[in-house]
Amino acid sequence: MEWREADGVRWLESRLPGATAAFTTRTAGSLKDGHERAVAAIGIASARVFHGRQVHGAQLAFHESSDAATGPVEVDGHVIRSPGMAGLVYTADCLPVAVAGPGGAAILHCGWRGLAAGIVARGVEAVDATAAAVGPGIGPCCYEVGDEVLAAFSGLDDGVSSGRMLDLPEAARQQLRRAGVEEVEVAGLCTRCEEGLLFSHRRDGGPGRQGGLVWLTGEGP
User: Fold this and answer.
1) pLDDT-derived band at 221, boundaries 50, 70, 90
2) Does some domain include residue 184?
3) Of 49, 58, 91, 197, which one's alpha carbon is 20 to 30 angstroms from that of 22?
4) Total count of domains within the chain
């Protein structure tokens, strides 16, 4: 991933097969209050950005053209099938995960509930993903969880938890690899630790949200 900046907005950018992912910071303000400044800096037309009401599930919306959105209103992932539009998810401590392959690209909102519900496998299958980028989220240094959460990931390999500390990015990485995605790039930034850079619900308790976006570049995989 590479840091990019324009018009006072900083974001992390990852190049995927035929697609690009961007993970914003608090320099763009809270995207739930409006994503126009962020996407203008990145170079995306605001009218062609698709987002939904996130419910910590595994439902995806499929966007075949820039004219109309399809799929349920309550979604935690967006599948982009053609150039000229972008999918957007909001995060504070949950992970934004972008996947891409011959079938398009998808951006997924991955909290522990979404990961446990299988949103990663659904996103990978939807686009036949060969590569993924995992944006900033709460790290294992700060994510203490209860028995219910630990049990949801007990089927994964070692390294997902240590005591009551859950490594959410590692859980996502393992799920991606089990779904057949070997090329996985991880930001490695903890939202709770990076107070000056990123919003964190667990730290702040507020409504601030950064965003994860993905769009097709028009290039072949």
Assistant:
1) very low
2) yes
3) 58
4) 1
Q: Residue 155's domain spans which residues?
A: 2-216
Q: Is residue 52 part of a domain?
A: yes
- Per residue in 115-143, pLDDT tens? 999 999 999 999 999 999 999 999 999 99
| Closest of 74, 75, 107, 72 to residue 88, by C-alpha | 107
Report yes or no: 80 and 106 within 8 Å, Cβ to Cβ.
Answer: yes
Residue 125 lies in a domain: yes
User: Which single residue is written with the structure tokens 């998808």?
Assistant: 106
Q: Are 47 and 161 in contact (CB under 8 A)?
A: no
Output the CA angle 106-112-117, nearest 5 degrees. Answer: 65
| DSSP bridge partners of 105 | 80, 100
- Tell how far CA 185 is from the center of its chain: 12
Closest CA to 216 of 81, 53, 89: 81
Q: Can you list the positions of beta strands (E) in the chain?
A: 2-6, 9-16, 19-24, 49-50, 60-63, 77-80, 86-91, 95-101, 104-110, 131-134, 161-162, 165-166, 183-186, 210-216
pTM of full prediction above 0.85: yes
* Pairing of the two strands 9-16 and 2-6: antiparallel
Residue 50: CATH number of its domain: 3.60.140.10
